[in-house]
Design goal:
The chain is α+β, with helices and mostly antiparallel strands. It has two domains: 339 residues, Roll (2,3-Dihydroxybiphenyl 1,2-Dioxygenase, domain 1), CATH 3.10.180; 92 residues, no CATH class. Helices cover 46% and strands 17% of the residues. The protein has 18 helices and 16 strands. The strands form six sheets. Strands 3-4-5-2-8 form a five-stranded mixed sheet. It has a three-stranded mixed sheet with strand order 7-10-11. A two-stranded antiparallel sheet has the order 1-6. The relative contact order is 0.16. Keywords: Dioxygenase, Iron, Oxidoreductase. It comes from Glycomyces endophyticus. Its EC number is 1.13.11.93.
């Protein structure tokens, strides 16, 4: 029996091998990440945000689908690898460009499963009924086009369902599942209808990449790095064209929070097109790019509210002031608005931490969490942010588009939230805040067992 976590680990490796063969610059990105991680680990001397082995092996992928049916089938495929949908991301209003998708991320949800292999796939679904992007005729053509294609065959879905139900597969079936699942995300060689693709691309390059091609594919495969600023500089030194800036929080002397991302620019890839007269010609598209990420501490709801206010303040100052890059302005705002130490982040209830018993329990039946932390009996350890930021994701998409597309904001947008997407997918979509809180609470229950006392959680939001 090949257990679920091992299926997931093998799947991540298979996709990396396939993607590297399709996008050779990905190998350069991974090589530079490995160099930077090795050096950063020596300097830092701890593994507070993940072991060097985990960080080096860590990846997230990104795919795009065109309908609720395709999203529901994706959920079945990823369930075979122990990956559940987590979080709701609306990229439609997160960017000035035309990005007509809503998204979730499939990943492990239990801490022990994340430690074994934290592979994630950010999965976006085209919102064809949103009139800001698509008129009625285009919507109907999109629905018809998507309904006629098959992204995942019946054999793959049957194997995936069995793997999810049984917690794994025997060697032969596991190999078959991995082969079929990997192939389903391979770049297709089938001809692309030029007129239809061009029509969608004028509206949105993202829409064309989803609804203008006969299959889905890995859009990017993202390694994790411990120092994204150093990675950015080294990639440029190697002659790799990077996007203009790093998305997310600025580099600063305080604790890393949430997620910072950047990428090399989308490369021209040869594709085959069918022209209006029926002839087939070779052309190229720029849709796939090489993304990299640096992960920080997960923020509580209170912390995320603070983060969102800081981002809004950066926008306000950039709109009012002349001079200064976004990173420079953000650095000033961060220094004014966020604690400069992990200890203060934990004390103010802004970040999620687990708690490790490290001292001698006081001679009492119960004690407060704050008392135990102050006495050194409990040691707070940061919980890594495992999820994504809509604005950063949209910023990466936008930075790699050659055209911003069009949108008519006079029209009404289609209403989506976590519950509606979950209903369409046919699976529960986990709230990431609940998952981090459960990890935090689980560590306190474990500490109670070790210390033999009741811990009063006086710092809970």
């Amino acid at each position: 029996m090949v257990a679920t976590w091992e299926l997931r680990a093998r799947f991540a490796v298979r996709l990396a091998e396939m993607y590297g063969s399709e996008v050779p610059a990905y190998h350069t990105l991974v090589d530079v990440c490995t160099e930077v991680n090795a050096e950063a680990a020596k300097v830092r001397g701890d593994e507070r945000l993940g072991s060097i082995e985990r960080v080096t092996a860590e990846r997230h992928g990104a795919i795009r689908v065109g309908s609720p049916r395709e999203m529901a089938e994706v959920a079945r495929v990823f369930a075979a690898f122990g990956m559940a949908p987590v979080g709701f991301y609306d990229l439609r209003d997160a960017s000035a460009s035309s990005v007509p998708v809503v998204s979730t991320a499939f990943r492990p949800v239990a801490a022990e499963e994340l430690a074994r292999n934290p592979f994630r796939v950010f999965t976006s679904m085209l919102v064809t009924e949103d009139r800001r992007f698509f008129d009625a005729e285009t919507e109907e053509r999109l629905k018809a086009f998507v309904s006629e294609r098959e992204l995942f065959g019946s054999e793959l879905l049957a194997l995936a369902d069995r793997a999810a139900a049984e917690g794994g597969l025997d060697d032969d079936d596991a190999e078959r599942l991995l082969g079929l699942a990997t192939d389903s995300f391979r770049l297709t060689g089938e001809p692309i209808e030029r007129e239809w693709y061009d029509h969608l691309e004028r509206i949105s390059a993202v829409a064309a990449d989803i609804g203008g091609v006969p299959a889905t594919h890995i859009n990017h495969l993202t390694p994790r790095v411990l120092d994204i600023d150093e990675l950015y500089a080294r990639m440029q030194a190697r002659g790799i064209a990077m996007i203009s800036e790093i998305q997310g929080p600025p580099a600063w002397e305080g604790p890393d929070v949430l997620l910072r991302q950047t990428s090399f620019r989308a490369l021209a890839e040869e594709r085959v097109f069918r022209q209006a007269d029926g002839s087939v010609r070779t052309g190229s598209l720029r849709v796939r790019f090489g993304e990299v990420e640096q992960r920080g501490i997960a923020l509580t709801r209170k912390g995320r509210d603070r983060y969102d206010r800081l981002v809004a303040e950066v926008d306000r100052r950039l709109g009012e002031e002349q001079g200064g890059s976004r990173q420079e302005v953000a650095l000033d705002v961060w220094r004014e608005g966020l604690p400069s130490t992990e200890a203060e982040l934990e004390l103010q209830g802004l970040g999620f931490f687990s708690y490790r018993a490290a001292g001698v329990a006081p001679g009492a039946e119960r004690a407060s969490l704050r008392e135990l932390v102050d006495a050194g009996v409990l040691v707070p350890e940061p919980i890594v942010y495992e999820d994504f930021l809509p604005r950063s994701a949209a910023g990466i998409f936008q930075s790699n588009l050659s055209d911003e597309g069009v949108r008519d904001d006079a029209q009404a947008g289609a209403v989506y939230d976590l519950d509606r997407l979950a209903e369409l997918v046919g699976a529960e979509i986990h709230d990431p805040f609940d998952l981090y809180a459960a990890q935090r609470d689980g560590s306190l229950r474990e500490a109670e067992q070790i210390l033999g006392l009741r811990i009063d959680d006086d710092t809970r939001e």
